[in-house]
Amino acid sequence: MKMGVMKLVLQKARFVLVALVAACTLGASVPAISDDAVVMAGSMASLDEQTQSLKKAVLDLNRELFVLEEELLYPANTQVAVFVSMDVGEYFGLDSIELTLDGKDVSSYLYTEREVDALHRGGVHQLYRGNLKVGEHELVAVFTGAGPHDRDYRRGATLSFDKAIGAKFVELRISDKAAKLQPEFVVREWD
């Protein structure tokens, strides 16, 4: 029974607010309103403010949970991240990259024309992020695409590195070697 009464009160409050807005919009004079209608209109405005406040609190909580999840899943002491960048790219049209870490396939990515264009304009793509134990590791990246004279091109690059305590960042850089008219694939650690 209480829900039915509450719905009726809310409908009446909405009707009064709509009538007020319509009257103000049309420039008509507003008839005298009872004190109950003013109280209901005030409580509706208060309800809207509470709703907006609740939405903001949920968004803030969601942001905090995302940061906490990132910290728990990828702690700074064990984190490894691999990024892709391009320099010029006249001799190689990137299609995909396959990434292997310590003999395990960890990432395969197929690039769109838009993504390749963004890389040509100086963008950097995070290809992989994960956790690694301290010690020696081997990273193998296989680049597939169109090479010189639009021939299918598949080239691998390897990096052996020592993971210490702290985050490790690795760059896969595709650049042109003008002297040989060939693309060059460099895998290096970022400091």
Topology of this protein?
Elements: H1 2-26, H2 35-73, E1 79-87, E2 93-101, E3 104-110, H3 113-120, E4 125-131, E5 135-146, E6 152-163, E7 168-177, E8 182-190
Parallel strand pairs: 1-7
Antiparallel strand pairs: 1-4, 2-3, 2-5, 5-6, 7-8
Helix pairs in contact: 1-2
Summarize the structure.
With 191 residues, this protein is of the alpha+beta class.
Order of helices and strands: HHEEEHEEEEE
* Overall morphology: flat
Oligomer category = single chain
Biggest sheet details = 4 strands, mixed
> Main sheet: which strands, in order across?
4-1-7-8
The secondary-structure class comes to alpha+beta
Count of domains? 2
Instruction: Report how far apart the termini are.
Output: 68 Å
Radius of gyration: 30 Å
Known CATH architecture of the largest domain = Sandwich
Q: Output the CATH topology of the largest domain.
A: Immunoglobulin-like
How large is the share of residues in beta strands? 35-45%
User: Count of DSSP E strands?
Assistant: 8
> Residue ranges: pLDDT <50 for 5 or more in a row?
1-11, 20-32
Percent range for helical residues? 25-40%
Can you describe this structure?
With 191 residues, this protein is α+β, with helices and mostly antiparallel strands. It has helices spanning 2-26, 35-73, 113-120; strands at 79-87, 93-101, 104-110, 125-131, 135-146, 152-163, 168-177, 182-190. The strands form two sheets. A four-stranded mixed sheet has the order 4-1-7-8, with no helix packed on it. The longest helix has 39 residues, at 35-73.
